[in-house]
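Archive transcription. Copying these from loose printouts into the bound notebook so they stop getting lost. Printout 1 of 2:
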Amino acid sequence: MLRALKPELNDFWCAIPNGGKRDIKEAVRIKKEGGKKGWPDFQFLYPNKMHCGLLIEFKRPDGKGKVSPDQKRIMSSLEKVGYRCEIALTKSQAWSILEEYLSLC
């Protein structure tokens, strides 16, 4: 949806594939490449009138996925330097967060 709505902003966002189960070899490789435990799932690195970028962490709507201490720490650090960080439980909630952010660009 974002690609179609704002193609001129496609270079400013990406998903971070940190979640999921991995074997130890893959986990070590990701860590060596700079992967960080707790980094939000989606990043949109384009400033608006209030923030220098938006990061969204996705959690399950059934409440089984909890925000980890690493996620809380990283999101707090990002917010202190001007990023907006949000938790989304559904795709529609994430889309609403992104639309609100884009309305201030």
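Printout 2 of 2:
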Amino acid sequence: MAAILLPETMIKLAKLNGEPEIFFSIQGEGRNLGSPSVFIRLSLCNLYCVWCDTDYTWNWKGTDFAHVKDSDALYTKYTKEEVIIQMTDEQIIETIESYQCANLVFTGGEPLVQQKDLLHLLKTLREKNAGYRMEIETNGTIIPSEEMDALLDQYNVSVKLTNSKIRERERIRPEAIGFFSATPKSNFKFVVDSEIDVDEVLQIVNEFNINPRKVYLMPQGMTVQSLREKQQWVIEKCKKYSFNYTDRLHIQIYGDKRGV
């Protein structure tokens, strides 16, 4: 009997200038701030943060999601075919290998939306190079499978607050947050826009028994000026509650640009 050929795994990535948004830069946020890393930006997300700076991964034409850019007359929602590129594992790995960097960051969107296909990619990467260090940036609403968890070295968990304008039942998934809180692989990043947001962070930290030393507060902002306006009071809150402060280093260096 002839062998049954399975279709190649295809992963949906964000498209930038006609190419997949896979790039070599430094980590701009969180625990590994400043570390050289290859970023693989997947498309699709299960949430819709009003201030999201990667809205081209989810804010599709025909949806009614709000965004802070809506007041800009030039801003329009996205057509999927124009901002998504599908690639095989082999194509993605070839691009990753061209940078000769062992630290890989899978970001989005929400990478775990494509967990099944992403799992196959991670397995193949491990087989090719056991020295890869792989971390994933997630909104903390989807639990990784056991196989996925075994392949990953770090979770950068960004639980969304009320300031995201997302309904609580969608952004707070107790079982998922509980999973991430329990694993030593996790760090938690909270985007804060005002001091009242920190009260909400404290609620979540207490409810899910999150170690304060694993918590990073990051000011919300897409310009150097907006970040600097919030730096001082965010730093004071970090000092008060033994949290970590994280900047958005890529904004400080490159501005609000993609692929850097």
